[in-house]
Write a structure and sequence with these properties.
Helix 2 packs parallel to helix 13, helix 6 crosses helix 8 and helix 6 runs antiparallel to helix 13. The two termini are 19 Å apart. This protein has 14 helices and ten strands. It has two domains: 126 residues, NAD(P)-binding Rossmann-like Domain (Rossmann fold), CATH 3.40.50; 181 residues, NAD(P)-binding Rossmann-like Domain (Rossmann fold). By secondary structure, it is of the alpha/beta class. A seven-stranded parallel sheet has the order 6-5-4-7-8-9-10, sandwiched between helices. A three-stranded parallel sheet has the order 1-2-3, covered by helices on one side. Strand 1, helix 4 and strand 2 form a beta-alpha-beta unit.
């Protein structure tokens, strides 16, 4: 993993636990598999603990790691480094995507509540109307009670967002072709088709993975179905939302947006979205940062401990799953 992430994710408690569980190689952490010392150590390694910055586990590299049996990833997706050769060799892979979903769902819930009150956009207005609060009346009805929230993607994050929304007096619609209607109902939502969701929701929040088939899932035609004054929230991946189409809607003031991810990321300096008072942009901070990343490290260490005890993993990743998930 990247040295900076190692320093944040493996502090004294995590390192102590790691030392108690396994015999560590020297160096303990690396992101350079080309180093001769690392190559020699790989010959005897049974387990890799990985995170952001792990290089691809190529066929050549794995040929030099004949004892490798398991990879415990203390971050979300493993798509960037787990190759077909890993699956071919039958190596166990787990990730901490469930733990990474927690702060994203928390951030999204806050964004939904703020959207109902138009808080980010009123904060922009306040800079121009410092001594007169009457400007709030220009933002419409500032409330969350009775709103309809559209959740696109009943993923790890989408499910958690749906469950957290039960604490509000809102109607929760979910669109996901793979979701089980009973599971959606149990979480507090109702499964509907995407066009129906778009026509009815006051707040649209996106929780689908970045796949070829989800690129621009929400484009001009879909945005046009949203009612005037609706807010679009994206904490998933920038590519699922057509940036140009969103710009067109937000420039007119018809739609508002809260964007933690964009396409491209970051947006070009001349993007009109930066200057709009009905758009809030944050620099991809919804996911695990700081102390939150150590929740993922602890999860990976839990998986390692289960492996050493002969217990099945809690969060295995499979080749089939990776084709339809983040």
């Amino acid at each position: 993993m990247d040295p900076a992430h190692f320093g944040v994710q493996f502090q004294e408690p995590q390192l102590r636990r790691l030392h108690e569980l396994v015999e560590l190689t020297d160096p303990i952490s690396t992101m350079n598999f080309d180093d001769p010392l690392v190559r020699r150590r790989l010959r005897e390694v049974e387990v890799l603990v990985t995170s952001w910055g792990c290089p691809p586990l190529t066929k050549e590299l794995l040929a030099g790691a004949p004892e490798l049996r398991a990879i415990f990833h203390c971050a979300g997706t493993v798509r960037s480094f787990v190759t077909d050769e890993v699956w071919r060799r039958g190596i166990l892979v787990t990730n901490a995507a469930d733990e990474n979903a927690i702060p994203v769902a928390e951030f999204t819930l806050a964004a939904i509540i703020f959207a109902g009150k138009k808080a980010p956009f009123l904060a922009h207005d306040a800079r121009k109307h410092r001594d007169d609060w009457s400007y709030a009346a220009g933002r419409g009805e500032l409330s969350n009670r009775g709103r309809t929230i559209g959740v696109v993607g009943f993923s790890r994050v989408g499910r958690r967002v749906t469950e957290r929304l039960r604490g509000l007096e809102v109607d929760i619609l979910v669109a996901d072709p793979y979701a089980d209607p009973a599971e959606v109902r149990a979480a507090g939502g109702r499964l509907v088709e995407l066009p129906d969701l778009l026509r009815r929701c006051d707040v649209l929040t996106l929780h689908v993975p970045a796949l070829p088939e989800t690129r621009h899932l929400i484009g001009a035609a879909e945005l046009a179905l949203l009612r005037d004054g609706a807010t679009v929230i994206n904490t998933a991946r920038g590519s699922v939302l057509d940036t140009a189409a969103l710009e067109s809607e937000c420039v007119t003031g018809r739609l508002d947006a809260i964007l933690d991810v964009t396409d491209p990321e970051p947006l070009p300096a001349d993007s009109p979205l930066y200057d709009l008072h009905n758009v809030m942009i944050t620099p991809h901070v919804a996911g695990s940062l700081g102390s939150e990343t150590r929740r993922m490290s602890e999860s990976a260490l839990d998986e390692l401990e289960r492996y050493l005890s002969g217990l099945p993993p809690r969060a295995p990743v499979t080749a089939d799953e990776i084709s339809v998930s983040a």
